[in-house]
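Recap from last week: sequence in, structure out.
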Amino acid sequence: MRDASNGAKVDAVTARLRLIRTPTIGPVTYRQLVARFGDAARAIEALPMLARRGGGEPPRVAEVATVEREAARVAQLGARYLFMDHPDYPPLLAELENAPPVLIVRGDVALATRLPVAIVGARNASAAACRFARGLAHDLADAGAAVVSGLARGIDTQAHVGALQGGTVAVIAGGIDVVFPPENAELQERIAHDGLLIAEQPPGTEPRARHFPYRNRIIAGLAIGTVVVEAAPKSGSLITARLANEAGRDVMAVPGSPLDPRAQGCNLLIREGATLVQSAADVLEQVRPIDARAVRSPGGSYAGPPPEDATDADRGRVAGLLGPVPVSVDELIRQSRAVPAVVQTVLLELELAGRLERHAGGRVSLG
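Predicted structure tokens:
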């Protein structure tokens, strides 16, 4: 492929990054575009046509110079890219419908396949919960598990500290070179050196509120099971637990006093069916019956079949079923009576035209 601005030949990595960093192109859309057109370069060339069919203007593709600067910064930091089709890409994470097309990593990527168990919890956790999380993480790592968490204050920090000598994976919400919270600067660097540090956002990205749910889905997707130590209702930790449950992973919770608001989230999870755990042995008993090959062998993609051409009648039928209320793609397929690949094409065209929003659980709505 040649960049229209200067005629220079664009390599495959640059083309992939341009597509990934293009606004309105999320993980599901990226995977469908590459599945349909074979590679990112051909997908970029097809964007104007697809957007016109969807009734809107094509998205503005990221500039070659922008992604080349990003790649240079990644190399300067001693980090590297892991694209989804790379052998080192975490296979459990690849199972997610909205798995990141690319990760930026520093450290030992093999840790992501060593019985990964997530430990998450409150930022303003009690001293007792912090001590418990630290000890639980230490015991899990000592037993051969890799402890995954989000490097936030409170439970996350203690989980990383407890597992640091045995193996820990930190997923951060900002760029690989951005420290948040600031007091974890030394810990983040130690994890990058002795464990594994993962970021989805480009270097230099300051974490914003919208980035944390994206970070949480990576934590849930990496892990074979998620343990919530302490969490208030409607907290980010419960979002991670929900995402883990939607991905078919084990959800575990440590019970707490009903008098402590920080324990309400865990007690609620247990009431709704999460496994009650009180030790590393409880956690290992829950996750170890799973075939270890599932951690190392990639499974199928949930992005759906590669899109194929749709007729105007198909577009009208599918678009007519959409509205402001999110609906599942499966429901659209049933009601439109179109084949899945055609429905995916219509949704892809609408999204590229800026008219479609994707929601958790494979649901979509008009934007």
